[in-house]
Amino acid sequence: MTSADATIASKARPLPAWKRLLLSEYLVLILTVVYFAVMMFVVPEIATADTLLDVLSAMMPLLVVAIGQTFVLIVAGIDLSAPSIIAMASVVGASVMTGDAGYANGSGLEVIAGILAFLAVGSVIGLFNGTCVTRFNMPPFIVTLTTMMFFSGAAIWYTTVHTDASSIGNLPRSFIEIGQGRVAGLPLSLAVVLVVAGAAHFILSRTVYGRWLYAVGLNPKAAAVSGVPVRKVIFWAFVISGVCAAISSVLYTGRLETGTPVLGQRILLDVIGAAVIGGVSLFGGKGKILWTIFGVLFLTVIDKSLQLMGLPIASVFAIKGSIILAAAIIDAQRHRLLVSR
Amino acid sequence: MSGFRGKFSLLVLQNAPLLLFAVLVIVFGLMSDRFLTPINFVNIVNQASHIAIIAIGMTFVLLIAGIDLSVGANMYLSAAILGVFLVGMPPLVAFPVVALLGLAFGAVNAFMITQLRVAAFITTLATLFIGRGIALYFSGNKMVPFSKSVLAFGRATYLGVPSAIWVFAIVLIIALVVLKLTTFGRQVYAIGADPDAAAKAGINVKRVVFTVYCICGVCAAVGGLVSGSQVAVASSTFGFQKEFPVIAAAVLGGTSLFGGRGGVLGTVFGAVLIQTVENGLVMTNANPYIYPLVISVIIFIAVFTDSSRTTVLERLERRKIRVEPD
Amino acid sequence: MKITRRDFTVGALLAAGTMGLPIMVKAEGTKTVALLFDSLVSPFWVSGIEIMRAKAKENGWETLENISDFDDNKQFEQVKAMIGRKVDGILIIQTDSKAVIPAIRAANEAGIPMVHFNRPPAESDAYSVAIQADNRKIMADTVQFLVDEAKKMGGKYKACLLIGDLGDVNAIQRRDGFFDVVDKNTDIIEVVARVSTEWNADKAFAGLTNALQANPDINFLVTSSDFMHPQIEQVLQTANKWFKRGEEGHVLFAGFDGDEGAYARLKDGYLDACGVQNLFLEVDMAFQAFKDMWDGKKPEKLLLDPGFVITQANLAEKQDEMWGYTVWKKQNG
Amino acid sequence: MTAPVSPLQAAPEADQPLLKIEGLCKSFFGVEVLHKVGFSLKAGRVLGLVGENGSGKSTTMNIIGGVHQKDAGQIQFDGVDYKPKGPRDAARQGIAFIHQELNLFRNLSIAENLFITEFPKLVPGLPFIDRAAARKRAAELLAAVDLDLSPSTLVNKLSQGERQLVEIAKALGAKAKVIIFDEPTTSLTTRETERLFDIINRLRAQGIAIIYISHILDDVMRICDDIVVLRDGHVVGSALKSDMTIERMISLMVGRSIDQLFPPRDYSAPKGEPVLEVSGVTQRGTVKDITFTVRAGEVLGISGLMGAGRSELARILFGIDPYSSGEIKVSGVPVVAPTPTVCMDHGMAFLTEDRRVEGLMMEAPIDNNIALSSLQKYAGGLGGFIDHGRLDGDVQKMSASVQISAKDIARTLVKNLSGGNQQKVVIGKWLLREPKIFILDEPTRGIDVGAKNEVYKIINSLAARGACILMISSEIEELVGMCDRIMVMAHGEIRATFDRGGFNREDILRAAMWDGNRSTAA
Predict the structure, then answer these.
(1) Is the N end or the C end of chain B the one with fewer CB atoms within 10 Å?
(2) Which of B34, B140, B227 sits opposite C202 (nearest CB)?
């Protein structure tokens, strides 16, 4: 492109309203609202306070994983192992806390020990992913694919070692409260998520590390020459993703009162899908926590509306796929507009 | 880095997947006397064929730096249409028909990706859901049976070789010829290396990309039918999450996810390697809980050595300015 | 911008198309029951939901459906959504017996009766009714029949068990039922292969093929679910081991569930025995439980379907109770 | 304003022009980029097309090469109206375009690259490639460009110059009558450049017409027969080479005469303390026994051919690549375990030779690029939060002081800037750190004359402030114009050092041409 083209580009005329809408970073939020409004005629129950609260509490654990994923996506990585981290952390954490021969049972510190176990599993797996990607130059897709396979299997295996049953229950009440409790009518998990999302937002927008993440995602070579510790930045992105998955595992395990080795196994595509629909790029360098929140909200509202309608699974799959595709097509058109601008 | 040690480690690294394969064969062979038999080897290849066929199609997609997550859904949808609407076809008719169905599925992906410019990952993620939904609708969640003649074909052997291996061999030969001996095949590699340069060089990039996704669709459907002729019915989990072993097979075989590097022979090797491990674990009567653990560790080792090899090669091939006297 | 607008229209149409869904209207006075399954992978579940739909219609009830796809958390969400829709009863098939407890509590709080179909929940203070086949006992009875057959014929047996998903209670109970009997008869039966199928036809096929490769002399085969019959037949045929009872080389073969494939193979003489879950009875029990709870009664927390073993000997007399027979009859005119 | 020189007269030769362009106009988004551009090209002649970035050279060539469509005007090719539908159509009709960034596929062989769109077929009508025929044809084409390599060699293994020759072979293979070269020599070694010129001369002799685009005006004067100068989409000069001088070209290009391309600096001013001391730095296969010192306020030039180890030395100094022995000291303090971060802490800055690959985040706005290296300076407090107010203010000031022309530095993406402005962004990024030592690798590559001048001014003011500057350049003229001292490298070694008084083009070139292997053997 010549400099002449650039000058022209900056002289573009003001855009018509529909184009401005299409280019707005609130597009996904607007789509969600439109969808919600349409759904009010199909299932009026969607507009009750209870359902809205359900949407909110359903969003929370998914959102935490998606936030972790956002970090990895920004550095042009991908973390397929998040669901297996959720499962592994769930059974390990539960095995520490459970009243049925838990390792820390009766010590009085079981909840703290349990939560530490969750976080330890998340950070260790994240650490491993990060090391493989940064030290051994392995592609993130494959590293996390193998860790996903490994820990999905390992979670089941671990459960069989610990118990005859297929899951670990009898968890301390105070732990369960984290996932289920309400404060002033709002889910307690909301507080946890607000802290995580707030911290993530500030890291990305206000700290040096945040700026480095984007730089690494946009051009790792230039970032390295500019004094960005590229390997460290990528490494920590994977650790953050692992820890976020572990936190989400705490919320999931708490709300189900059970450590189960199949927890979260089906949410991988939802997590990545939510981030991408929100506008996070799979090629790195682009993403915001706010966008991820919109993406998760969008998918959760769709899910909730489909649940309320109680349709056969064939329709659920077809509708969900079509909506994701429609959102992606709209997004592709938006990109075309952005490029041609 | 002394010359000899460098060369030796390079030699080891370059043949790492083969060495790994050899080690596995020896270990399993020592643990079970039924493992190292010709019949068992045929058995392994037979069971690997459907994954290998689909992975061959996936290799084309990976070579242009794309991805297709919808292969499993494609398998199921093609099989469901065949089983529900086109009952009782003999294999000679069923294969072309299923290939056309797969082609149509692939063409939908291709249209989204090339014409509407939606990212391949998200397109095929969406068609995964949609395809599965439509297939479930057609099948009413019931198991879709394949016709008697297709099942007979699934059991048949020709010249002592199971039918699945024949289909697999035919697909492999066609893929090899297409990739190595046609302009299209070379252009696939060119686009994988640099799509912008390919466009400037006058390659019709959209057409090649479109064709590649169609090929992947055809392979997915044909692989589905091969698998179906063996397992006799397509239940509602038919092809579910097949995309993972398929991608793993291609990557194990040295195909890069970033395009331009790899080939179908490697992919076939990867598929057979994975199946060898599964087979060996059964032969040695291992605890079923540890299957996924062992398989993932082996894939990890293979990819790890491949990455190390690339790193070493890059270091060795770094441009020399001075010729140093030894 | 012509192209962009056209493409945008395509996208908008797609989105609009998906929204053109039938508007659900609930008639006044009728009962609505939610059917929450975790999957529809086997004929057992497919027939189950079809029988439920039909019987609900007979009662004049509306049904809503949700499939959780083995995701406990999603199922919890689905329960909450059904509470949001103010249904009159929730029939649930959970994946995990413990993870369902919060869902029961939520239903209790909303005052909506909940019935667990085929899989009971773990012990808890929450109240719900579970209908369950006596998996372990039915499987034990079935395997006992097979062992008795073996004793009659004499000789030693190499056994293979196709196990279900290792995360599923039913699979575990059936496995335990199998070993309850086999462990007592180690003198004639040696278990040489346990194939982990993860309730997946593919894996069952490959696993059984490999098992036969490793132990070509397997002659005692038990599957934890009938839906894997087609794969078993295919593998045994390939290995040239598919013979009727009484023929040379017949493999002693027992199944579980009682689906249409099992009936057909029993009738044809390939299958020796099948542990049948009485699906009709279970649905009736479940719906009766709803009616009782609506009337303010409190049925027992666990209601057992005793099931039965069907064999060549009692086929004619018992086939009408076998749900697979009804399906088979419909399919075969 | 200099008046345009008279257009080429209807040539003394009687033959018709091969390519005739008249009144070519092109607008993007309503802004005119080309205004009635016209010139003609005869078979067997080389036409040099010069102009600053944005003057319309690329657009003109893209229209001829089929990348863009013209709005108005006429192109006649071989006597008939020429309207290519796309790059492939243009190539079919006999116009080959060799882009600055070579369009070769590194994972394919030479032969495959030559025939990637039109392989010889085994059976006509069927898609199967005749590999033997392809190799044979490829060998012939390679012989025609003097490239002594097997056609099945992977392009990955070729040097930049060899790749250029493969591109030319490709053009010959397509039976091109017109070959367009866009900046062909920027990444070639001197020897490779000589070889390229030999081939161009041979092509000319064979009657092929050539359009040669370059910023290196020396080369244009050497190789071209006719010269056309563009400015702001207008043809402002077109003449035979004999009627043209470099000075005239420059003044036509910029629309004013630059009396001094190289702004003056007080070279006699006393230099300060030694800042960068390098002693005995050696790395097997790259550089050997490099020893030199740079003082505060000094500009040290590093000359040498491509592949002499200049960039490699710079990368070692900045901690990107390792070295096995020797010592680097900054202001007397040894640099231990150098990485870019460590070197930056010692006050170093490094402008890389390829700004697209290693210098910039092309998809990010200007301000983020400028801020990238200095973020830590603006972070503080408990969470390490960035003080955006202070940072944005300083970035804004920096952007103004290096004169980046863009409306909104927080919105304009770097990829939309011209080469010169991009380079200023990289420079701004480093100046924000106030470096003591600034290593510049080819700071003016691929940027136009006006921007070059501005870069030189920045360098001078830096030196005047007491920074020490290491300037690597392939253009000896530039080093002579800017430096206090020039160090010449060849084969990874320092061959000679010249002081400002003793600058001499021939001596510098001779030192650079030293053949290391022969001398070591001797």
Answers:
(1) C
(2) B227
Model ipTM over 0.85: no
Q: Which of B189, B198, B321 sits opposite D309 (nearest CB)?
A: B321
- Delimit the domains of chain B by residue range: 33-309
Distance CA C219, CA C205 (A): 17
CATH 3.40.50.2300 maps onto chain C at 27-134+279-306, 135-277+311-331
Q: Judged by CB atoms within 8 Å, which residues 233-292 of A form the interface with D?
A: 285-286
Indicate the angle between helix axes B205-231 and B91-110, nearest 10 degrees.
140
Query: Between the CA of residue D475 and those of B4, D471, D495, what are the distances in Å?
Result: 42, 11, 17
pLDDT in tens, C114-160: 999 988 898 888 999 999 899 999 999 999 999 999 999 888 999 99
The residues pairing with B119 across neighbouring beta strands, listed in sequence order, are none
Enumerate the residues of chain D whose CB falls inside 8 A of the CB of residue A286: 363
**Could you tell me if residue D381 is left (phi over 0), alpha (psi between -120 and 50 degrees) or otherwise beta?**
left
Reported CATH class of domain A15-340: mainly alpha
CATH class for domain C135-277+311-331? alpha beta
Residue B158 CB coordination number (10 Å): 9
A156 touching B (Cβ < 8 Å): yes
**Which strand (E) or helix (H) includes residue A298?**
helix A289-309
Cα nearest neighbour of D433 on chain A: A226
Positions of chain B with pLDDT lower than 70, given as ranges: 1-6, 316-326
Residues counted in chain D:
522
Residues of chain D with pLDDT under 50: 1-14, 517-522
C211 to chain B: nearest residue by CA?
A: B282
CATH of domain B33-309: 1.10.3470
CA–CA distance, D193 with D171 (Å, rounded to integer): 18
Which of B182, B193, B325 is closest, CB to CB, to D127? B182
| Strand spans (E) along chain C | 32-37, 62-67, 89-92, 114-117, 129-133, 157-163, 189-196, 220-223, 252-257, 273-276, 302-305, 308-311
pTM to 2 decimals? 0.85
The string of DSSP codes covering D444-477 is TTT--HHHHHHHHHHHHHHHHTT-EEEEE-S-HH
Report which of B150, B174, B179, B143 is spatially closest to residue B89, judged by C-alpha positions: B150
**Any D CB within 8 A of B177 CB:** yes
**Domain segments of chain A as ranges:** 15-340
Grouping H, G, I as helix, E, B as strand and the rest as coil, residue B113 is: helix
DSSP D380-409: ETTTTEE-HHHHHHHHHHHHHHTT---S-T
Nearest CA in chain A to B77: A314
Domain C27-134+279-306 indexed as CATH 3.90.1070.10: no
Burial category of B70 from C-beta neighbours within 10 Å (exposed 0-12, middle 13-18, buried 19 and up): buried
